[in-house]
Structures are given as C-alpha cells and as structure tokens.
Records
---
Amino acid sequence: MRLIFLGPPGAGKGTQAARIVAKHGIPQLSTGDMLRAAVAAGTPVGQQAKAVMDAGGLVSDEIVIGIVADRIEEPDAKKGFILDGFPRTLAQAEALDKMLEGKGLKLDAVLELKVDQSKLVDRIVRRAEEARAAGQPVRKDDDPEVFKTRLEAYNRDTAIVAPYYAKRGQLTEIDGMHPIDAVSAAIESALSETVRG
Ligand code: AMP
C-alpha cells in the first residue's frame, strides 16, 4: 500500500501516519523526521537545511526529492509506504510521479486532513506544552511565530498539491477536526474503500 498524507502543519499527519504504521506494517516516510535526523547528525544535507527549517521555510526541492528517492529504495519500503510531509510543492509531486513511474508503481491513495487553520496555532502551542511536560525536546519550529511562517509556506506552496491529485481522482478528504480516534476511524474507512490491497 502506497499512501500520501497531505494537510497543513499541525493537522495530525504524523499522529495518524504512526497509527497506519502500527496497523498496516508499512513504514512512515516523514521528510521532516529525515531532515531533523540529518540536522542532528550534522550531515551536509542537515547543515544546508537547518537554518531554513528553524525559520519555518521549505527546504529546496532538490534536497528533499533526493532524500525521498534514496529512502524509497530501502528494503522496508518495498512493501509500501506512507509519505508524511511530502510532496510539499508541485515540483515534488511531479518528481514523485516520475520516481514511481520509473519503478512501475502506483499510489493507492492520497489522504488530505482538512482542518480549521485558525485552530492550528492553539494545537501547536498544546503540542509544545505536552512535549515539555513529558520531558521531551520541543521542536524549535513549534514556536508560535515560526509556526505561522510554516502555515504561510503551506498556503503559498503546498495547498496546490491536493488539487493536483484531486484532478486525477486520487484525493480523499478527511475531516481532521474530530478527536484522534474518530479521525483514525475515518481514515481506515477511506482506505478500505480506495485500497485494493
Ligand atoms: P514537518 O515535520 O513535516 O512539519 O517538517 C518540518 C520542516 O522540515 C518543514 O517546516 C520544512 O522546513 C522541512 N520539510 C519537511 N518536509 C519538507 C518538504 N517535503 N519540502 C520542503 N521542506 C520540507
């Protein structure tokens, strides 16, 4: 099963993708996680990406497309994957099409988590508070001001990705404003309708 999760930052993509991983046994390919790992490891990609990420901007298409192309070659991605945080631009969506085409693979579903953007800043403040309370590190880009920049980047560059898939009849919209379990149930029901196995 090959899936894409779309939706603005803070929509719950990471949370829901982790549940799909647990239920369906396919890896979650989060470009945000991969980039944060590269930053932590101090790799050349990490060094290039760090400042942009801290400021809430988008890392270059070239870098992100490169890491996804490498990642989907790994053995665990052979049985499928769920892309979380990618594609984030039209150029990335087109590059993904080419990568899959080259391998003779198709996407099974593109899920878009629809949320009320005016509620997202509150959500992100809560996410930071919960992480702090649990003694976990708080993401630098979960600062409310940086978060607003991330939301602007989403509306400027990423919001056009959903219509790209909708035009091809591949998009399923999910109401992401319900409690986490209800959103998971809606996703599972959508998957049982769209995924052939
Ligand atoms: P995320 O964890 O998905 O919210 O991503 C955190 C940050 O990583 C984003 O704000 C971007 O700076 C960068 N990033 C993650 N995925 C992408 C992508 N597909 N294209 C460009 N930048 C990305």
---
Amino acid sequence: MAAHYPFKEIEARWQAHWNASGLYRTSPEPRDKYYVLVMFAYPSGDIHMGHFRNYIVGDAVARKKMMEGKDVLHPFGWDAFGLPAENAAIKRNVHPETWTRENIAVSRATLQKVGISYDWDREVITCAPEYYRWNQWLFLRLFERGLAYRKNAEVNWCPGCKTVLANEQVVAGECDRCQSTVQKKTLAQWFLKITAYAQRLLDDLDTLPGWPENVKTMQRNWIGRSEGLEVDFPLKHSGQPLRIFTTRPDTIYGVTYMAVAPESPYVQELELEGEFKVEVGRYVHEAGKKSDLERTTEGDKDGVFTGRYAINPFSGEDVPIWIADYVLASYGTGAVMAVPAHDERDFAFARRYGLPLRVVLKEPGRKPQEGPLEVVFTSKDAEMIHSSIFDGKIGSEAVEATIRYAEERGFGQRQVHFRLRDWLVSRQRYWGTPIPIVHCPKCGLVAVPDGELPVRLPEGEIDFIPKGRSPLADVPEFVHVSCPNCGEPAERDVDTMDTFMDSSWYFLRYLDPRNDRRPFALEEARRWLPVDKYIGGITHATGHLMYFRFITKVLYDMMLVPTFEPSRELFNHGMVMDGEGRVMSKSLGNVISPIEFMDQEGIDVARLTMFFASPADKELLWSDAGAVGTARFLDRLWRLVEWLPAHSRPDLNRRYSRTELSSDAFALYRRLNQTIRKVSLDLEAMQFNTAIAALMELLKEFGGEGRGGAYEAFHVAKVTQLLAPLAPHFAEEIWHRLGYGESIFRSGWPESDPDALTLEVVTLAVQVNGKLRGQIEVARDATEADALKLAMADARVAKFAPPESVAKTIFVKGRLLNIVVRP
Ligand code: ANZ
Ligand code: ZN
C-alpha cells in the first residue's frame, strides 16, 4: 500500500488536545441536551471488533450532535459482576475482583487509545460498593412495594455438578457438562414482580416510534397478552371444578377431551385409583425431565388417560380427562379444553390416541359429510355450527356471546393472561450484589436499614466451587448478624442478584455518578432524561431491554424520574462475523482485536472501513481488505489539501449565486450542497455506509490535484466537516491546516444552500442526424445519459430514432443533443 498520511502523529496530537481541552466533558447545565448511550461492556478480556462497532456508532452520533451545538452526554461503564469472573476464579485461582479490575484496565486503555468520545469522569463500575449499594437500595424499595418477593421455584438441578443450571445448559434432559440426568428441584428464590407492569410494558410500546419494529414485536410476543374465557368443567366423580383457560370459547361444543399439565395440582384433585394412578405417576415423573421448550415444540405430543371425566358446562356432555405434557403448568390455569378439529396441537394428540374430532366451525366450501378431516381448520372468523343456540354466530361476536353466557350463569369469567413471568432475580453465586435481607426466626424477612448499606461482599478466602448454594453461605462472619428489628440472632440472605438488576438502571447513575446520598438526583434526571439514542446489539431485545423499561416505570411511580420510558430511540447495530460466518465472541475464541489493524492503518481508516463495509444495522464480515478503498480515499483528500494554500480559512457562511460562478463551478457547488444534504440525512438515519459513498463520489468531482482540480479550500472545509463524525482525528487535522483555530467539533454542522439545490431548467434542442426533431426541458447540469433518456421519451424523437438504431450521440451540455442513427 502507498505511504499513508501521517496518522500516528495526528492521532496522538488530537487525542491529547481533546483531553486537555475537555472536549468530552459533559456540561453540568445543559441547555439543549443529547444523551447518547451505548450498552456498557462486560469486562471479560480486551475489547474486540464487535465492541468496536458498537462504540464507533455511538461515537459518530455523539460527535455529530456536538457539532450541531448540542450538550452531549456520552458516558461509559462496566457491567462488572457475573459468572465468567467466578469461573475464572475457579479455573485460575484468581479472585473475581482482581480478574475483573485487570480486564477493565486493559479494555479502558484500548477505548482511550481508539479515541471514543466518552466522558470518563462519569465512568460506572457495577462491582464497586459505591454502585451496588444502590442496587440494594433499589431492591429494598421494590421489597417495600411488594414488588420483590420470595417463593419456591422449580430449578434445574444437576446432581453431578451439584449446581443449578440455566435452561440453556440442559440438553435433552442432561447436564451439558457432566451428562448427568438433570432433576427438577424446588428452591426458595427471589422474584421481581414485572408481571404487575405487563399491561403498561405492552401499551407503552406504542409511545416509542423511535424503536425498531422487530424489537417491539419481540417484546409484544414475550409479554404475550391473551384475552379469553376461564371456565369451569365440573369433575364428574366429585363435582369439583376443573378450571381451564381458552382464547377460543367459540369452539367449546367441539371439545372431545381435557388435558392437564403433569405438574398441575389438578392431578391430585382427580383422586386417581388403581392402574390409572400407577400409569399417571410414571408419566408425570418422565415429563419432569423435559424442558418447557422440548415439551411445546417437539413433534409427537404424548399423554396418558386418567380414567376420569369432566362435564362440558355448555353441552352437558362427559369429556375424558388426559394428562399431557404439551400443557404447561405455568400458563393459564395449567389445564385446557381440547378441540382437535380446530387446534393444531389437539389435532396431533387426538390422532395419536384415536380420540374423536368434532367440527363446530363452518369451513367455506367444505361439507361436513365429506369424510374424515385431514387438516385442522383454525380460522378465527368462522361461523359456529353444531353449537346449539350459538349456531350462526361468527368470530369475535361468537367469542363475546359465549363469554357472556358463561358469566351470566356463573361458571366462567372473561380473563386476560400474560405469557410474561416474574423475574427470578436471586443467584446462588458469589460475584454479585448481596441481597440486603435478614432472615430472623422471629420476625421473618427483615430489610437491612438503608443506613447500613452497602451490605458488602466478604473478601478474603472464598471457596467458589459450586455446591448448589451460594458461596456466601460458607462465610460465617457474613451470615451471622443480629436482626435489625428485634436484635436477636439472625442470618443474612446469602444469595446475590442477577446482573440484569445492575444494568436495569446504570444509565441513571451516569447522571450523577458520585452522589453518595442517593442513587441519583431528581434534578439530574430532569435534565437528561430520556436517553435520546440507545445503541446496542439485538440480543438484548427481550432480556435487558424489558428490565430497563420495567425499572424505569417503577422509578417513575416513585416520582424519582420524569419519564416512564427510558429511551426515545433504540438502534441495534448488526453483529460482526468472522470469515466462517460465526458471530465474533470471546466464548468462540474467534475475536480479532482492532488494535493491531489500527497500528498499521490508522484509527480513522479502521473506523471508515467498518462503517463502509456494511449498513450499520446489518451483519458485517470483517476483512482487512476493506481498508484499501477507505485508506485511498483519506490519502487522496490529504493530498488535495496539500495543494491548497495553507491557512486560508475560507468563510463557512459564504453562499454562491449562479451568476458569480462559471457553470462548471456552479455545478460543483451544487454537487457539494447535494452531498451536504445527503450526508446529513444519512447520518441521522444511521446510514453511515451511504454517507461515505456520497463523500467518495463528491471527491471524484473535485478533479485532480493542484491546477487540475476544480475544488477550493471552501469545498474541502465542508467535506471535512461532513467526515468529522466518522474520521475524527483526520478531520480535526485538516481543519487546522485550513486555518481554523477552534476544534472542528465546535464548528457547527454544515447546512446546504437551498438556492443551490433547486434545479435550473434549460431547453435542449434534440436533433436526429442533424435535423431538429424536438425540444426538451432538462436540468442545466443534466448529463448526456439523462438527456438521451428524456429525449427518447419524446414521441417525435423516438419515431425518427428507434432505440435499436442509435449509433452514437453528440452532446453539448445545456444546449444540444444530436442522435446519430444507422440508416
Ligand atoms: C381451546 C382452543 C380451541 C384453543 C382452539 C385454541 C384453539 P394463547 O393465545 O397463546 O394465550 N392453552 C391454554 N392454557 C394452556 C397451557 N397451560 N398450556 C398449553 N396450552 C394452553 O393460547 C391460549 C390457548 O392455548 C387456549 O385456547 C388453550 O387452547 C391453550 F381451536 O382452548 B385453546
Ligand atoms: Zn427479628
């Protein structure tokens, strides 16, 4: 590659300068604020190309807003608690704190080296007691409101590793580390009541036009609101109600069996006897080994008959009751009425066990006597048939009529169910925020008083080997306390919080990172909220981004923040992939560091290459080869500047009129203004790649270096401004070479000259073989190709010059087009 512009020297100069002049420092009293937030980092090693992409996108936004004159807040921090630090401690015998702090130091140095415009004075580190103290404070506020509670929950338990496994660690019923058969175990766990906010989390998505549709759809599905009927089917043997939830009461005359989840308390209420009891017992045991996902998606639905019957309250018929594991205990009432003729899962199940089908919805074009049903008919807008007094009712009207009927007779109710579950927030781990609760034999669960926060993690010798309980349980100095309420001996809760708790509110701590009396001041929240743009990967669509919205709503209800949504806009950048199309990640061991590449090509070339390689919201296949074009582009601009008189400091407010420039010069001025407009719009739309393409195109129009070029310092100055958010060091250097004193990031964002954007129209004479055949209106700077296209659209011209006979054209810009046709 040809010698590059002296990027090393330039990068060092401007980074030092920006730091010294406090360019990134946040204004304490913003007049026109802009809060740009990038998802903070998990410090598991040095940053790689994947992080780099996230951070340069945020940086480009921050720098453009700075140029627009906004008061920008662009902070950074570390999501520093979590399992990998603890695993490193087990593997390498290094304390999680040491490991984490070392990784932070390395990654921070890298970020500083690549010149991202963070205000480091506001750095937040979640494993610091000054931070997690406020997690505990927040937890207690939730506890006071009944939004944090403890209950027994089933967890996956590996008897081999003696630990609780996440759902992803259970593969086909086995532990993915030691292949032991995973058991379900009931443990007391802490939950946060996110379900209390389900409706608001759903409704408020409509107030977020700046969030991507796909993320909103994922959240809607995750929340999973269903409206329907809860209705009692009395058990035939006891008269006790078997309550089911259905979204399709219009199919209730088609019920041919009932299905109950294996874990449902209803299994007991059936009071099974003899063979049935044995068979069902065996089935329930087997079902316990499968995950919910396996149970609901696997091809073959299986189950077992119980020998019991329920009575359909609408038709009075007896309906056999089955236990089937496609029914989930945790949803609805844990029992369903099965309608094999109109529901896919019930259909598959009925076929397998030879259970009858009954059609109760009219399928257009199909007569009921046409033999056995081959496919289910699931339309929601069909007419009820064979349904007694409801025959003829259609769709939602049918649903309404059946619900009303059940409500009037007192055996059913309209009901809304959500798929969303409460947030299981306790972890049996060391490296997290201790839960600030004391268990007192007399008083029960007692909150640690605010004044005693933080409850610190014990330091010193800790045994991190998993034993199925928190390592904190084995630290007597930590466990034994006196009850804050009665003073009697009591024990601390030994669990720690899920790290999603830390990341649910970190964006608020940035507003007031040193406050030691409150997590943040309301005043600061009023100044800066909501976040204007939040940037991060799509992988967090339903996890972090739900908790982040939930906690904001809780704080809003406590009147601690002024907005009920944390972020106005969300942008998901695409993943960075390796050569084999796998996502670049530490766990796959396929990461490429941006550092080496930057050493060779420069930071700004690396940035431009990344921006140019792919639209920012799409996947990107990283390749060094992409740098050839972007390096050439910067080198070329560099040489163009060298040909200009030094320090000419052109007037940036200067506007040119058509009359004072030659037509060529005006055409270039026009192209410049078109480019200003396009780049401004592209950057707002996060389309960095097309912005760069437009700048490259424009540079071609500048012509050669020196006297061969049509450009002047004025043009170069504007291009440099447009480039600055993307290639900041390079742009700052050029800016100063052009003679400007202040930073380019304080120079204002260039505006296009509207007069130069309007088209000037001229009349072009069109000849065919030298004879005048027509006149067309074209833009003054229309190209030959444009003119020919317009001319051929003119019927008279086309008659004398059929397209297939055109041999060549002669074009005099703004005046004449002569089409030469073959005889
Ligand atoms: C009868 C019926 C007939 C149903 C029909 C559907 C179609 P959504 O919309 O996702 O909320 N269901 C209810 N509880 C269930 C559970 N615990 N496990 C598995 N399935 C359950 O789904 C509601 C529908 O899913 C309910 O409506 C019920 O089946 C089933 F033609 O009742 B339906
Ligand atoms: Zn007590």
